[in-house]
Amino acid sequence: MIMTFVIAAIFAAISAILIVPLTGKTKEGDFKWGFKAAFFGGVFVLAFIVFGLIFYITKIDQNWTALWPAFFILAIIGSAFSAGLEQKVKLVVGVASVLFAGYMLLAPMLNANDKYDSAKMATKTELKAFDETKTPASVPPKYARNKMKKAFSQVPNTSYYELGNLQIQKVNGEFVYIAPVEFSDFWKWFKGNTSPGYFMVSATDSSANPKFVKSEMKYAESAYLNNNVERYMRLHNPTKIFNGDVQLEVDDDGKPYYIRTYGEFISARNGFAPKGIVMVDAASGNIKTYALKDVPAFIDGAVSPEAVSLQNSYFGKYVHGYFNTIFGKRDIKLPSDEGTEANVSPVFDEKGDMYYFTDFTSPKEGVDSMLGYSLTNARTGEATYYTGNKDEAYMDSEGALQVVEKKFVEKKWEGSMPLLYNFYGEASWLVPVLDSNGFLQNYYIVSAANPEIAVTGATPNEALRQYKTVLSRTGSSSTVNGSSSQEEKTATGKVVRVYKEQNGDFTNVSFLLDNGDNYIVSTEVAPLAVYLQEKDKVEVTYINSADVFLPVKELKVDGLLEKE
Asked: What stretches pass through the bilayer (predicted)?
């Protein structure tokens, strides 16, 4: 706060110097020092109040470059009241302000190459195959938010508060959504003073219920005056360049902190490159600054999704400089706007590290094929661009949503949060399906290269099991588990247990043999499997893998003969 006062005082003094004619004389040669001192003091006080209010209300950074229009106007006004050398000096200040304005306007053209260099990504072909023993963070935020709203009665003095913004993160090894309880208006904040806590719900288990965690927070996005966490950060860091909204992060002990990404402009006041975070203890107000390399381990989203979205646009747009974006548009690729947070979607890898996913498409209208996709580490900002298999055309995220919409057009269900995975070597979209009220109905997996290969399941893991079966029966068995080295084997035995599940026009049959192995087959591959029952003797040809259920290529049941 004190630093803000000092900066406002400096700007006020400059304003007074620019406006007050310090060297001017009357016709009698009198400098009128008393009048000038009073005039100077009046301008200083007024300017101090104005700048102070601007800084306090708008929460903008307090660098001189943020206020160049004011200095231009003040210099022009001051030159009108001055004469001689003083007038010329003030006119020079005005001209310099105009030149700086020109530089600001030209910055997007001049720094295009620097923006691209700041956003350069490592290049790979495909993601690593997904570990099917894991469950992806696949609960869409819209659904999680709906569940939290239903559970809002857990909050004391419910009428004082409303649900804040969701943030996905890892807490104690579990992927969860966090949402702070915010004040609904000024008077509720005035009476309540502190937020009572936050909600937490699983990001992987759609059946999990939200939990309200009591943890009083004095500083919040919806608080007012100095308790507004965004203003609190600004008052303690008056000259830092922030990008993106403040985000709530919770450590493994459940203690809440607010963080915000800071960085620097590429040039002038244009572009942004992230450098670190400012972190505030939501209860005590203890505030710290960290460079990206020093961010505490429990922080998952050190780089804001807004900053990542900017980096994606630089990478796709400025590959050949600024003028290529207007003429030719060679090699330009546009990042998708289907993400859940500022056009990007958070995902977690097998180590539990958070990344922001974005797919890129062509700037040509009517093209829904994907040119590639990127993953940006949410802690470091380092990004990788994946080109995909050049021999295949991949459907983009918008295309995946359209496939889901057509699939459930009668029910008026729609897809949400499409994410691309490598399932068994096949680039595939995992799309949660929501009804018109925002409630989760099922999960849809569709091949990015072949939309005809698609399944639905009540859970992501169930959809994965069905997807594996479909891939094996459609001739994609070499891609199951992402490896072409897996061989086919034959086994015989007696059926101990059998389970049948309808899947569209076909039935998935899972069975256990007396050799202790589990198998799964679709009636599309083996129509007579629908009659399979316990104690049947069978011969199976299957794909040898480390899976719990081994995909069956061929099934022969003693006593059942197929027609030639």
From this structure: 6-23, 35-58, 64-84, 91-110
- With tokens 């195959």, the residue in question is 129
Cα distance between residue 41 and residue 138, in whole Å: 62
20: its two tokens: 């007050």
User: pLDDT-derived band of residue 481, with 50, 70 and 90 as boundaries?
Assistant: very low
Picking from 349, 311, 443, 278, the residue whose alpha carbon sits closest to that of residue 130 is: 349
Which range, 108-117, 484-493, 539-548, is most confident? Answer: 108-117
Instruction: Choose among 242, 259, 264: nearest CA to 296.
Output: 259
Q: Is the pLDDT of residue 304 over 80?
A: yes
Position 478 pLDDT exceeds 60: no
Size of the chain in residues? 564
User: In the numeric block, which tokens belong to residue 63?
Assistant: 């660098």
If you compute the radius of gyration of the chain from its CA atoms, what whole number of angstroms results? 31
437/435 Cα distance (integer angstroms): 5
DSSP bridge partners of 385: 123, 374
Summarize pLDDT for 7-22 with one digit per residue, the tens. 999 999 988 888 888 7
Closest CA to 434 of 452, 460, 453, 408: 408
Contact 546, 519 (CB under 8 A): no
Maximum average pLDDT range among 116-130, 299-313, 479-493: 299-313
Q: How far apart are CA 71 and CA 93, in angstroms?
A: 8
Q: In DSSP terms, which residues pair with 74 in a beta bridge? A: none
pTM for the predicted model, two decimal places: 0.84
- What burial class does residue 144 get, using C-beta atoms within 10 Å of its C-beta: 0-12 exposed, 13-18 middle, 19+ buried? buried
Q: How far is CA 514 from CA 492, 494, 496, 546, in A?
A: 9, 6, 6, 18
Burial class (CB in 10 A: 0-12, 13-18, 19+), 406: exposed
CB atoms within 10 A of CB 384: 15
- Tokens matching residue 120: 């350069």
- Name the β-bridge partners of 144: none
Phi, psi of 209 (to 5 degrees): -95, 145
Give the Cα separation of 39 and 16 in Å (integer): 8
Q: What DSSP state is assigned to residue 547? A: -
Tell whether the model's pLDDT for residue 482 goes beyond 50. no
Residue 52 CA to residue 5 CA, distance in Å, equals: 7
How many Cα atoms within 13 Å fall on the side-chain side of residue 200?
20
Pick the closest to residue 166 from 157, 156, 176 (CA basis). 176
In this structure, the strands spanning 273-281 and 287-291 are antiparallel
C-alpha 295/C-alpha 29 separation (Å) is: 64
DSSP H/E element including 93: helix 84-110
